[in-house]
Amino acid sequence: ARRGPPLPPAPRGRRDGGDPLRRDEKEQAIAALSERLAASDTVFAADYRGLTVKQMAELRGRLRDAETEFTVVKNTLVRRAASATGRDALLAYLDGPTAIAWVGGDPAVAAKALNGYATEHPDALTVKGGLLDGADLASADVVRLARLPSREQLLGQLAGGIAAPLSGLAGSLSN
Q1: How far apart are alpha carbons 111 and 101 in whole angstroms?
Q2: 132 pairs with which residues across the strands?
Q3: Which residue ranges of the chain lie beneath pLDDT 70?
Q4: N or C: which terminus of the chain carries fewer CB neighbours within 10 A?
Q5: pLDDT for res 152
Q6: What is d(CA 131, CA 88) in angstroms, rounded to the nearest whole number?
Q7: Three-state secondary structure call for residue 88
Q8: What is the DSSP-derived secondary structure letter of residue 134?
């Protein structure tokens, strides 16, 4: 038999060290996430399970340069927000520890930054998938998006493609 003062009662709610949210806090969080999902054209979901605090800060810095914010989210709250906004394709990626990359700029630049970091830290960060203009984007599609040339490169290729025949014509006419 145990001697000494009685043990305190087991904590209620979450047992992973976090404080459970009150109902009004949950409703506010769901409303904020719903508003953000409705306003975002592109979001990526990632498993950040192996990242240290320092690596997370470094990743956030890289993504900030790509006009993207990386936030850790509660899956249950994001599920409710996704269902409320009609972004049901995101539900498939809300398993395990999840962080959302909220893209404010060019989706290809954000995908390059996120995929590049995932490639450098394959055991710590995994891109699960996401949404691009409301359409489902699997992990392989995010990698494909990351491999696209930048907008500036594509514009340069287009300009070069237009200029080459014109410069050839000008050379022929001058001869």
Answers
A1: 9
A2: 42, 135
A3: 1-19, 150-151, 153-154, 163-164, 166-171, 175
A4: N
A5: 72
A6: 10
A7: helix
A8: T
